[in-house]
Every structure is written in C-alpha cells, then in structure tokens.
Amino acid sequence: MTGEPHVRSIDELDVSGRRVLVRVDFNVPLREVPGGGREVADDTRIRAALPTIEELRSRGARLILVSHLGRPKGEVVPELSLAPVAKRLGELLGAPVALAPEVVGDRARALANGLSDGELLLLENVRFEPGEERNDPELALSLAELADLYVDDAFGAAHRAHASTEGVAEQLPSAAGRLLEREVNTLRGILESPEHPLVAIVGGAKVADKIAVIDRFLTLADALVIGGAMCFPFLRAQGHPVGSSLCEEQDVEHARAALATSGEPGTASLLLPTDLVIADAFAADAEHRVLDGVDVPEGWMGLDIGPATAAAYAAEIGRAGTVFWNGPMGAFEMERCAAGTRGVAEAVAGAPPHPGLGGGDSAPALARFGLEDRVDHLSTGGGATLEMVEGRELPGVRALEAQGVSL
Ligand code: ADP
Ligand code: MG
Ligand 1: which of 272, 304, 361 to mutate, judged by most atoms within 8 Å of the beta carbon? Predict the structure, then answer.
C-alpha cells in the first residue's frame, strides 16, 4: 500500500488470551415463533461476521460481541433482546454463546472476566443504553473496561458516531474486522481505481437519500443507470406525465440539476427507462400492463422498468469493467413488478470481473432470484455504502484510521 488512508486490520493485533470487544452488525429481522418467543428470520448478517469471529477464536481471543438490534431508543425493550441472535450464532459456530443480561455493568464484567480463550459472550442490545446513540463517553469507557482490545466489524453501523462504534475505538487499541476491511477496500476500489467502464445502477424508492450518490457517479462513472421510483423525478423533469407514480416535487428539482450536469463533457451518460410496467394500484392483484413509452396515464403508476429498458440496461452492464448497484429497478417484492430487477440482477451476476453492490434492498433482490453467490461482493451496509459513495468519511472507519499507521 502507499500513503493512502489505511484501516488497521486484525493482523496487527496480538489477541491471544486477550479480551476482545467486537462490534458486529447483528441487526437482523426477527419473526415470532408459534407458541411464543422469537427467532432470527434472516441470518445473512450473522454469517457475514463469522470469518472475523472464527479467526479471532482460533487465535485464542476471548470474544465479547456487541451489537444493536432495531430501535429501542435507549430503553430495555424485551422484544428486541439479542437472545434469538445468541442462539442462532451458537448454532452456526457449533459452540455455546452466552448472552449477558445487560450491556455494561457488574454482571457483564463478571461474565467477560470469566471467559476462557476461544469462548464467546454476547452483550445485550447496545441500544438499550441511552448513551449509545449520543456517543456518551461514559458508556464508551464502560464498554472499553470490559476488554483489552477493540475490533470493529460492523460496516452497517460505521456511518454512525455511536459509543460502540466511534467512542470505544478511541479508548482501546483497535482494528477493523475482516468484513469491515473488505467492505471499505472494495468500495474504495470502485470509487478510486475502477476498471472502466464503471457502470453505476441506482434504483429504489428513497430518492432523496440518493441524490448525492447520483451527483458523485455523474462525475465518477462512465454510465449511470436509473431505475426504481428514482426514475420518475427525472422523467417528470423531462416533461413526461408520471401519473400517480412515487415522485416528490423537491426531487424533480434535483433531477433537473442532474440532467443539466449530465450534458457536460466528462460526465457519465445517463440512462433512463424507455418503457415501464404500470399498475392501477400498489398491489399484487392490481391491473398491470407494459407501457411502451414513459408517459404514465392518469390513475396509473410505474412499478417497474419495462422489458426494452431491462434489455438495454443489461447490455450496458454487460460492457462494464466494474459495476456498482444500489436499489431495485421496481417493486420487485411483487412478482409482476420483478422482471426489471431480475433482468438487471442477472446481468450483474454475469458481469465480470469486479461487481460491487451497495447493500440495502439489492441483496434481498439477488437472494430472491437465487443469484447472491454469483457476485463478488454483496455489501451488508446500505446507509454506510451510500455515505462512502458521497465521499463522506465514516466515523467508525475514521476511528480505526486515527490509530492506524499508513503502510
Ligand atoms: P435500497 O434499500 O436498496 O437502498 P430503497 O430502500 O431506496 O433501496 O428502495 C427499495 C424499495 O423500493 C423496494 O421495497 C421496492 O419495492 C421499492 N420500489 C422500487 N421501485 C419502485 C416504484 N417504481 N414504485 C414504488 N416503489 C418502488
Ligand atoms: Mg431500503
């Protein structure tokens, strides 16, 4: 490596026999179990943390895992206990995972101090503590007192300056876990030294969250492919009627500015839909039809890109050297609005050699089509990815770099 900013990796920590506090992202969906209780409905994020956990265990570390789950807002919410996560993690590791009944305090400390080499303890949901989200230095200190070293593997939480991500990193010798390291390096690779052409695909529904991402890719990418509800502010700005499609007035202004920028030399070519799947309601049993063109009639809404658009997007992706994808092309959860996202997913899965994906709903979309193993890298952090693309420094990553030596 050169003098680039560099996150310390766990190679640089001597963990044997030491208590290592590991921030993981176990913010997984739960479901009710018939007869009472909850279980993990999707363990993708738990599996994503296994390489770091297993490596540290095999190197003789005593692991104290810490994560948030949902938004308990500083109060103990029993439905958001990490108990189902401890159970699932134990099954995946084939080893017992003790759950501390609290985040910090005497009982947590006693359990942490009682660990032997290779053993694991999971602390209770860190957002049960009111100090977590406000990055309270006292909470950071209490967390630091449980351990000798700190490893951050929670890329999905790295854009938050919280006590268990940023605060504690300043209190202990710290390093990035394998997942966080891979996420940051992959994204930096895409942003700083992509193999051209770089094709960025941006879709989804949260248009306002992604305006800055569009701006960045207009200057970085060779082609910027727009789908999902994201396309309607653009189509509206071009003067097309959008019917009752999702389209906020302030986003139309942003889209107009992006369209103006995209005409300038050296910017990405902007691809917009030329046909759509429209429906008369946002429902699986609504009437659906393919619209040849993009003038959405009154009383109808666009819920997917059309077949000609999907084919054009797939062709563009097929020519790519690097692909970045964030957000589905339509309301893919409904089968009749899934074809556009499926077409793009298949093109991304088939596109050599360096696809990179921006997490969020692109991951479940790929999983739905059985393609999740066919891409190089599937990000676990939607929000963190978007902020990195925008060019913002992530507090969780900066905290690890602050101590890191530039190699
Ligand atoms: P991500 O999580 O990948 O960043 P978003 O959260 O912004 O993406 O958006 C994902 C959601 O967007 C999906 O649930 C999908 O149903 C919805 N969506 C996509 N296209 C449309 C559309 N044309 N109209 C309404 N909703 C859409
Ligand atoms: Mg989302």
Answer: 361
